[in-house]
Write a structure and sequence with these properties.
Umud Fragment, subunit A, 434 Repressor (Amino-terminal Domain), flat, alpha+beta
Length: 281
């Protein structure tokens, strides 16, 4: 078996009796993309980036997809539990480390300063000193992958949508941090990234700005910026309800006047939640 056949074998085993659409959503994949990988009629393979992302989402050991266990009688995939390593070995207490430091480098300290250092090191774990690990972004277990699709939604004349959008570079974020920033959403797997195209929404959204959207919002839920199709083209614009039968399609760039479009001809695909841009300073 080559590496891709092994990955496909493991993917089928991992999915089991689950709904493929639910798996694709959880893994940040387009359902069509997953179907193509599983199909025997296409040559679509499970690539390195997607394999590593699924392993991360399912908490499987890195590289799990790339080999078949000798014991294939195991019927279920068990999430990875880290094994003990030398890093798990007991370390000297804080007080002992401080004493060692003072013995080597503390000769210039006063007796009072030495006493304070030792007292602080002897503080119980319940004290108001909180141990923090700044070596990784976000809280452990609070990072998720957000798929970035090659969908260019026009902020101008409209873009023709792809039938099967392919994913570009995905983004790993903390849902808790997003909520602290004021981004409101129900489930993180409803969040996707697309790209704005054109200048009609400037200065709010500039040409080629990545946008965080919620694909679970498929109808008008109030004034805001939406990703929607109209007349077979894909747009990113502000929408306001105008009467019962029309939307007012608004561009933030004043050089583009608002237009009235029919509600019946407008199909909302997502709501824009955040502009993922960077400004030079």
């Amino acid at each position: 078996m080559d590496i891709y056949a092994i990955r496909k074998h493991n993917l089928v085993k991992l999915i089991g009796n689950q709904r493929k659409g639910a798996c694709a959503e959880r893994w940040g994949m387009a359902p069509a993309h997953l179907s193509q990988i599983l199909s025997d009629k296409t040559a679509k393979n499970l690539g390195d980036d997607v394999a590593r992302r699924i392993e991360s989402v399912e908490r499987l050991p890195r590289g799990w997809f790339d080999s078949i266990p000798q014991d294939e009688s195991v019927g279920a995939v068990v999430p990875h539990t880290p094994t003990a390593t030398n890093e798990d070995a007991p370390v000297a207490s804080a007080a002992a480390l401080v004493k060692q430091m003072l013995a080597k480098q503390g000769k210039g300290l006063s007796a009072e300063a030495r006493a304070r250092l030792l007292a602080a090191a002897d503080e119980p774990a319940e004290s108001n000193v909180i141990a923090a690990d700044f070596s990784r972004p976000g809280q452990v277990g609070d990072e998720v992958w957000i798929a970035h699709y090659d969908v260019r939604a026009a902020m101008g004349g409209g873009q023709v949508p792809h039938d099967y959008p392919e994913m570009l570079q995905d983004i790993r974020v903390s849902p808790r941090h997003l909520r602290e920033m004021g981004v409101e959403f129900k489930e993180h797997f409803h969040l996707k990234m697309v790209t704005g195209w054109g200048q009609s929404m400037a200065p709010t959204i500039k040409h080629r700005d990545p946008l965080l959207v919620d694909v679970s919002i498929r109808e008008f839920v109030g004034d805001g910026i939406y990703l929607f199709s109209h007349g077979d083209l894909l747009y990113i614009k502000r929408l306001q309800k105008k009467g019962k039968d029309h939307f007012k399609m608004i561009s933030d760039n004043t050089n583009h006047p608002p237009e009235d479009i029919r509600v019946d001809d407008t199909f909302i695909q997502a709501r824009v939640l955040l502009v993922w841009n960077a400004h030079l300073v």
